[in-house]
Amino acid sequence: MESLPDAVVQYIFSFMNNARDVAVCNCVSKRWKDSLPYIKSLYFPRNSFDNHSGIDHPDTAVWKMISSVVKLEELVVYSPFSSIGLASWMLLVGSSLKHLELRMDNLAEYQNCTESPSKLECISTAKNLESLKLWGVLMMNSPKWDAFPKLQSLEIVGAKLEDPALTAALQACPNLKNLLLLGCEGVRSVLIELPSLEQCKLDFYGVGNYSLTLTSPKIEFLEVQGCSWISVRETACLRSLSISNNAGRVYMVDFGKLAALGFLSIRGVQWCWNAISKMLQLASEVKHLYMKVEFTGDFDNLQPFPEIDFVDFFNSHPKLQKFDVHGAMFAALCQKNSLKNVQSGFVIPCLEEVVITVRSPLNAEQKISTLESLLKYGKVIKSMAIRILQMRSSHSSADDFFDEICRFQRMNHNTVRIE
């Protein structure tokens, strides 16, 4: 290191970010100490001040370290801090920061939401942020943010939100390309209008009865968990779509044309059949389809899927390459009349991989017939996985069905496997 030019030493230290490493290097030599102001990123782990015995408060210790940096571009703080401490840091480096990640830790402290300045308010000083990630946020009141014109990525993980507060926060980030709200609760109706948004993941915690209206003409990847009513009309660029609701029901989906959609995943305990059939109809160009919905029916009426014609389904999805189907959907394809109208020349042209989860031995003959038909008409199928999951039956039919599955696998051992 002693033989290296100062510029090279400074370049090496610019890749250092752990605050403890920086503090240690600061004590090695004057040359190293003089090079540390050129680091670009600082990271304070959760336990940074667990054994703190100095005269300075942790907030002050962080302030002293960042004050020694010429142009800090990234700051990650997982260790506890106060709003006053955060405000002092932002006054120092707010203009140069591009990436900010903070563990807020104020979910259970309502007084922190009303103190002035609040932690959220302090962030507004960093006008040039390109990415912002917040953990454990209490956002009951609208944050006093003017605007983050350069912000392209916003991630909020673990938050209690009110509808107006979330709306105001998103309005302050007009040029977002990536939005992630993970493990959030409290909102009821989510309205997102972001013209540049390309990737969006929304995970709402609770009873699963939220509504979502998304207006983003450039959206390419969308993942939604916990919403019962979903409206996304501008979908010309949408390539990947995942909708799930683990706690509630999906009543309504309103999408535009899904001509670019290559991947569709729908999951949940109960979907209204109109929502399922509409998604299947719109996703006619899909290449990978994942379906794991247990029941259909409106409100509290849990009903099985209606019969789905095997030929019509695959004719309606001619580009399907991978089909991952669970229980109820597979049973709907295995109805008695599903294979009666197979016309000569019918093929499943692009299907290469099938994953089927079976949970019941009922209608065993039709299920075996459907498995055989998939191999017969799927001329390019390379792999079929059959998963026998939680099959409960005191009747011998479960054993007989499993024997038939094993026989089917032995006859097609190059393609079929049992998991």
UniProtKB/TrEMBL annotation:
Gene3D superfamilies: 1.20.1280.50, Ribonuclease Inhibitor
Cross-referenced SUPFAM superfamilies: F-box domain, RNI-like
Residue intervals of the F-box/LRR-repeat protein 15/At3g58940/PEG3-like LRR domain: 96-203
Positions of the F-box domain: 2-34
Superkingdom as given in the UniProt entry: Eukaryota
InterPro entries registered for this protein in UniProt: F-box-like_dom_sf, F-box_dom, FBL13/AtMIF1-like, LRR_dom_sf, LRR_FXL15/At3g58940/PEG3-like
Name the UniProt record assigns to this protein: F-box domain-containing protein
Lineage per the UniProt record: Eukaryota, Viridiplantae, Streptophyta, Embryophyta, Tracheophyta
